[in-house]
Amino acid sequence: MKFSPLALENACLVTLPKEMIMAQTPTLRAAISRQIETGSTKLVMDLHQVEYIDSSGLSILVSAHKLTQKHSGEVILLSPSAGVRALIELTRLHHVFTIFEDREAAIEHICSQ
After folding, report:
1. In which family does this protein belong, per the annotation (predicted)?
2. What is the pTM of this model?
């Protein structure tokens, strides 16, 4: 996982790993929570590399959403693969998250808030 600061002071691009599974959940959740708590309250979660995500991986996204909401922030999703998008839609999370396919549009959206 990689955190890349964006033009807006409290915005960050989070590049997620190939797999978001139960074994990685505590580590990923802690790293994202730390990032939010240190001031990055507007996150672009880049899912383009994610090949597999299970329910615990989805829970990381939901936890990040809830934590950023406490700080008047936002989490948006970027470029989920077809399989990941299908799971997001199956779990109705596409009603919770804004999803972008275009990286520049996602960054522009998060930095204009």
Report:
1. Belongs to the anti-sigma-factor antagonist family.
2. 0.94
